[in-house]
Amino acid sequence: MKVAIIGANGQLGSDLCRVLAAQKIEVAPFLHRDVDVADAAQVDRVLDAVRPDVVISTAAYHKVDQCEVQPERSFAVNAIGPANLARACRRMDALLVHFSTDYVFDGKQRRPYVETDPPGPLSVYGVSKLAGEFLAPNYCSRYFVIRTCGLYGIAGSAGKGGNFVETMLKKAAEHAPIRVVNDQRLSPTSTAECAVKIVELIERAAVGIYHVAAPDHCTWHEF
Questions:
Q1: I need a labelling partner for 218 at 20 to 30 A (CA). Which of 12, 52, 93, 103 fits?
Q2: In angstroms, rounded to a whole number, what is the distance separating the alpha carbons of residues 43 and 81?
Q3: Which residue of the set 125, 139, 143, 210 is catalytic?
Q4: Is 125 a catalytic residue?
C-alpha cells in the first residue's frame, strides 16, 4: 500500500509519516508548497506521478479570523480543495482521508458532539469546512471525513507559530503575561494519538464520518 500525505511536514502530517513508516507502509510525502489543493490540474499532476492507494490531506486554511475577511481563499482551500482531491481519488480508485473540524458545530450543546449531530457552523471557516465535508463524498465513494479539534504535536503548526503546549511553556519560562480564553470548551488532542487512530481506520476501510479526539474536554485556560 502506498499513502500520499499532503502536508507531511505539519504537526499531524509528520506524526502520520512516522506511524505509517513504523508499520512498513510506503509513504509519498508532499509539503503544502508542493501542491495547491485548490488547483485541480496540479492535484492531478502530483498524484498521477505517484499513483497512491490512499491520499491523506491535512491541507486547510484554518486562520479563523482571516477566513472572515478572505472567504474566497477559505472556500478555495477548505471546500474546492477536497473536491479536487476526491475527483482525483475516484479516477485512481484511491481512498481519500479528509480532515474537518469541530467548528462545523455551533458549540451550544452541553454534551460532546457525536457524528450524527446536525452541524451548525457560525463562522466562514466552519461553513467552508462543512462544504468540504459535503463535496468530498459527492465525488468519491471511498472516503473518510475525520473531525478533530485542539491538535497539538511536536512539529507544531506553521500557520499558528508552533503548538499550544510549547507556547505556554515558553511564555512561562520567560515570565511573560499569559492570556488564554476560558469560554471555549474542546478536547485537546495529541497528533501522535490521532495519527494512530487514522491508520487504524485506514486498515479497517470503514468509510464515513468519524470524530477522532481525546476523550476528555476542558477550556483552553484549563488545558
A1: 12
A2: 9
A3: 125
A4: yes
